[in-house]
Amino acid sequence: MATKERNRLVLLIMGIAVSAGLILSGLFALASPPAAADVQPAIVIPSRTAQPSPTASASPSASATPTAQPQPTVSAAPEQPPAPAEAPAPVPPAPAPQVPAPEPAGQQVYEPAPPQAVSPAPPVHVGGGQDDDDDDFDDDVDLDDDQDD
What percent of the chain has pLDDT over 70? Predict the structure, then answer.
């Protein structure tokens, strides 16, 4: 009898340990950052350090006389026109046209049948029996009036 109780206690402790382990692993999975394979690379925008800043002013005399030595970027006239301060926003792609998906082979689409005219059921006589009186009225339901009981 003691071994059954001990086995039940061991199974209970093991069940609690497994449950606690699953709960803790779920919490750690929620709290940890995503793996490196799941992270998408950030969009890298090249810096514009080769071009002069828009606040720098170029003197007309310095730009008119070319020299063999490189001029400082602050006082030199840019060889290329400065790029606009804001790049134009990228145009989003046009949405794809909505095309209905083809039906899988072997399956049929259920279409209800059109309603059909249904004639009413003939009246049903419940009860009745044999004609036991002398009147001409028949107690049975006879659809053929030409026959008499």
Answer: 37
